[in-house]
User: Fold this.
Amino acid sequence: MNAYNSIQSKAPAREWSRYRFPRDLFRFTALLACLLGLMFAIDFLGIDLARLLTLFGRVGEVLSERYFPPDVDYVMQGDYLASVVETVQMAYLGALIGMLIAAPLAWFASWNVTLSRRVLYPLARLFIMASRSVHEMIWTILFVTVLGFGMLPGVCALVMFCIGFAGKLFAEEIEVIDMGPVEAMRSAGANPLQTFCYAVWPQIQTAWTGIAIYTWDVAFRAATVVGFFGAGGMGWYLKRNVQQLETERVAAILLSIVVLVVISELISAWARHRLNRKRDANRIAIEAEAA
Amino acid sequence: MSILQVQNLKARYAQTGDDILKGISFNVAEGDFYAIIGPSGAGKSTLIRCINRLVEPSEGSVSLFGQELTRLSARELRKTRRHIGMIFQEFNLVNRMSVMDNVLSGRLGYVGTTRSLFKLFPRSDIQRALELLDRVSLIDHVDKRADQLSGGQRQRVGIARALMQDPQLLLLDEPTASLDPKISRDVMQLIRDTARDLGIPVLCNIHDVALAKEFCNRILGLQSGRMMFDGKTADLADSDLERIYELEVL
Assistant:
């Protein structure tokens, strides 16, 4: 008899099962419910799965017949290029103003450091949630209805979008900070604003910069289409050509949007990468020092 | 003369309503180095935090130089907190700030908001910070980031920050729990000597009974929110310690 067997033989005889009742019953029931829901949805909407198989072929056909070749000359005109610049400026203004409003809102909407848990916290949460719950295109339609056509409703829509988007992410970063320094500043008699600047801000600075870059990225993507609903920029040209069935121009516009979004994403990915690298370098230096 | 008077202090958890402190009374006199000992969960940290109202007491009174602290408005409380320096177990430094800025942050209660936003501390404050950093032997590390220091060095920054407040009372919340035994003794020694030089009484949470006996002249024994002992260190008998820690099990 080897050591393993001798230990085994002394262990008291007990039943053991991986499965627990009723926990696992609930889990498997939930899984089953999801699958049934999927089947029901496909059946309810009358989706013919066989048609999906021919999808790619048809997409290729339509693209090559109607959208090819893209009318590149059209997107190289001065008018259209000016609308590109407008779009960039609209995104810039929207993102900047939106984040300037989102920053204090995020402070109020963070349970751990908010100025007032009874009043400001729920109000700020509600405002951020309200901005998020309405899609940016719906905001555009709303603002166009109120303010009329032009850049202003576009900027306003993007501001609302950025408040919701950045506000939520900003607040999440504040809520996971180390509260030790906050306690230290409070115990030294610092007021709430000083506490925020000295104990909270240094801890969230890097994360907020990353979020700001990301927000700009998403705002720019949104800005390329808000024109579709009358708020100016490239989207307006898109809408007009779609309605006039100028499919080759539409192809060129879509292509230009893709190119611009890719460029913007590359730049922001590069910036975020640099930010992370700086943070990592810092951490490595600290660990080296400690060792 | 007693500087800090605590009477029938009670505190409870907001959610469950259970009392953490069940009526604590004691006096800290000039020149005292007062230790609060007791098992984990006895309420030591809560007691310390009730003094400067980082935790709101539910009942009882805390008076510092005759001023009742429990009834102060937010603004008055901030003014009073300036005179109570606090040193923490986890140091509570701002890692991404320099040693200098960490020490200067002890002056936030004195510097106006606008000035402090731009880190425009008066020249005299900077001079004072340099003196204190010299005193805690960190003058060569002024421009380092706080997270580049060792544990003992960080706690010395914490001490300098607390002294920057020109405190009339020092609160210590387990100042040595994150440090190794030798550094712990050095830190306690530094605090005792400095407090003695500046004539500041100290109230100190500590779980290491040997350190408490070595450095403190008075001891308060806590057990699940009740006072089990209050007296001179010399009067603390082994039987008292047994009573304080009797409920603690592995």
